[in-house]
Amino acid sequence: MYFSYGETETAYLKRKDKKLGAVIDQLGPIHRPVDTDLFSSVVHHIIGQQISTKAQQTIWNRIQQELGEVNAETLLTAGRDRLQCFGMTFKKADYILDFARKVNCGQFDLDAISEKSDAAAIAELSSLNGIGVWTAEMILLFCLQRPDVFSFGDLAILRGMRMVYHHREIDRKRFEMYRKRFSPYCSVASLYFWAVAGGAIEGMKDYAPQKKKDR
Questions:
Q1: 3-state DSSP assignment of residue 2
Q2: Model confidence over 74-88: pLDDT tens digits?
Q3: Which portions of the chain are predicted below pLDDT 50?
Q4: Which of 2, 106, 113, 179 has the most crowded Cβ, counting Cβ within 10 A?
């Protein structure tokens, strides 16, 4: 399953911003996978922090192969040492087990998250050990498929914006100006800035000032 959007969102963004509109026309639809199971999405994001996507997927595949269904019961039964053997750090294993315990005892209500506003859901998710604001924002986008997620803490989004608009930097004030322009479809704008940052359009460069090398 991919993040769901269509003509309504892209037409709105093209109408609001000609430069982003040109990117949308050039790249066409972007297919980004989503995980609609909130529990597994939280676990997956904890695993993926500060490691490559390939390493994250390798660990995730091992967990699925060994445990089958990834839920609070199977993770708690596996325990800390077994989770670490899948390739994650003990710290991440502790974060995951703490989350599983909170879900298992009802302290963290998974079903309630989908009913909350973006801000409230981010606050609730980032209260978990191992989940910061950026990770919570990514869960909103790639699990809950919220339409208006735009993360100032995402370096790739900032890079994509510098490339599209030829800015040397994107400070908070400028970022919020763009957020207001793209809302209520910031999530779709994010998809295109990620693609640009990843080199999807040949010839686009990052206009950030080059750091001077020490002699």
A1: strand
A2: 999 999 999 999 999
A3: none
A4: 113
Question: What is the pTM for the complete model shown?
Answer: 0.92
- Residue-level pLDDT at 157: 98
Residues 150-194: pLDDT tens digits?
Answer: 999 999 999 999 999 999 999 999 999 999 999 999 999 999 999
| Cβ(127)–Cβ(168) below 8 Å | no
- The span from the CA of 136 to the CA of 92, in Å, is 16
Environment class of 37 (CB within 10 Å of its CB; exposed 0-12, middle 13-18, buried 19+) = middle
In whole angstroms, give the CA distance from residue 82 to residue 66: 10
Token pair recorded at residue 7? 């003509």
- In Å, how far from its chain's centre is CA 48? 11
State how far the Cα of 4 lies from the Cα of 146, in Å rounded to an integer: 10
**Residues 123/89, Cβ–Cβ less than 8 Å:** no
CB-based contact 36:1 (threshold 8 Å): yes
Rounded to an integer, what distance in angstroms lies between the CA atom of residue 78 and that of residue 81?
A: 8
Q: Is the dihedral of CA 80, 86, 90, 91 positive or negative?
A: negative
Q: How many residues does the chain have?
A: 215
